[in-house]
């Protein structure tokens, strides 16, 4: 299951995810977030952000 599906399952929008990332010290703009989720942007920073997104989702899924 991809991140977008998991976000939908926990009722989380991209904006919610961006805000959560910012709380954890990752500055991500909406267009970049979109590119990362679509797999267009694949640099090391994107991989790091995806890993943090997965952590955030795991926390939400376990609530």
Q: How would you characterize the overall build of this protein?
A:
The chain has 63 residues and is an all-alpha fold. The protein has one domain. It is 71% helix and 0% strand. The longest helix has 19 residues, at 44-62. It is globular, with a radius of gyration of 11 Å. The mean pLDDT is 95.
Number of helical regions: 4
Radius of gyration: 11 Å
Instruction: Count every beta strand, where a strand is a DSSP E run of 2 or more residues.
Output: 0
Distance between the termini: 19 Å
Major sheet size, sense and barrel closure: none
Q: Given the helix and strand composition, which structural class is it?
A: mainly alpha
Rough outline: globular
Percent strand equals: under 5%
What level of helicity do the residues show? over 70%
Number of domains: 1
What is the H/E order?
HHHH
Any low-confidence stretches, pLDDT <50, length ≥5?
Answer: none
- Which quaternary structure do these chains form? single chain
Mean pLDDT: 95
């Amino acid at each position: 299951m991809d991140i977008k599906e998991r976000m939908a399952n926990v009722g989380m929008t991209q904006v919610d995810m961006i805000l959560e990332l910012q709380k954890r010290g990752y500055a991500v703009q909406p267009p970049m977030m979109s590119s990362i989720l679509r797999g267009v942007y694949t640099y090391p920073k994107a991989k790091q952000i995806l890993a943090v997104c997965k952590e955030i989702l795991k926390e939400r899924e376990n609530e």
